[in-house]
Amino acid sequence: MAPELTDLQLLHELEPVAEQLLNRHISMFKEWHPHDYIPWKEGKNYYALGGQDWEPEQSKLSELATVAMMQNLLTEDNLPSYHREIAMNFGMDGPWGQWVNRWTAEENRHSIALRDYLVVTRNCDPVQLEQLRMEQVTRGFSPGQNQQGDLFAESLFDSVVYVSFQELATRVSHRNTGKAANETIADQLLARVSHDENLHMIFYRDITAAGLDIAPNQAIKAIHRVLRNFKMPGYTVPEFRRKAVIIAVGGVYDPRIHLEDVVMPVLKKWRIFEREDFTGEGAYLRDDLAKLIEELEDASKKFEESKQRRLEREARKAERLTAKRLLTSTP
């Protein structure tokens, strides 16, 4: 059996592909500017400059939209960690380094635009937002971490496979948050951001596809490892579990969306279950991915049943409160 390629060998083998995909990305990218998506005329000074500090009643977005948008923003805020991770894995030479810097510059626009929108429209507590940003960025992030918090060895394949799924998941989350906001400017802004995320996903997805052709068994090991331990980068945000429940129940990002809109489209693009070049452990891991998909399907069904029960409880509670108000208001 041929020895596995080192990351340096893979970088060398994939460099022409990276250059081609970088050029394609630049040709497809549509220029935009964060300031064009901010309703500046709604802005006013805060207390430090003689104005009024934020008060809860100033927020116009629903709880779902606010929680989801803040979660998305705090995820984008951890860009220093993401830049460090891909720079360490890709290096800063040639087309790899050009991609790292280009990707970082584009990603930075997202946090700029989302923060300006939320602060100018007063749809969140800016003090709380800044405190959360400080904590989030201080905690940092590494994709090479499993559900128990233990680090596993990262490779070039681990890195590009993880971001192939993560960028698509982020795109879906941004797009669904825009729809949930029920506000035209927020929807337009998040549609613009999600378009960027989609282009980033395509770069990483196609790099991985090329890697699958060069070293299929190494690639499938990384795909299996990443999906078995997958966590969104926002899991380090304080109170992540509570926020994730709100986001899932609200239909912004839930187990079904993760399976059908993120995992399956990428696996199908890579033709994981059609390829015949996996051998030995690689073939076993590919078969185990089929089992993982069944597990994700079961998890989706259980979540949907739990969500339905929760919604029914909330409906009954609302009915009781309405009845109580009617009784107390009756002369």
Order of helices and strands: HHHHHHHHHHH
CATH architecture field: Orthogonal Bundle
Distance N to C terminus: 87 Å
Q: What is the global morphology? A: globular
CATH superfamily: Ribonucleotide Reductase, subunit A
Number of helical segments with 4 or more residues:
11
Low-confidence stretches: 146-153
Into how many domains do the coordinates divide? 1
Largest sheet: none
- How large is the radius of gyration? 22 Å
| Number of DSSP E strands | 0
CATH structural fold name: Ribonucleotide Reductase, subunit A
Residue-averaged pLDDT: 92
Helix content: over 70%
CATH class: Mainly Alpha
Percent of sequence in beta strands: under 5%
Structure classification: mainly alpha
Would you kindly provide a written description of the structure presented here, covering whatever features stand out?
The protein has 331 residues and is an all-alpha fold. It has a single domain (8-316), classed as Ribonucleotide Reductase, subunit A. Helices cover 71% and strands 0% of the residues. The protein is built from eleven helices and no strands. The relative contact order is 0.12.
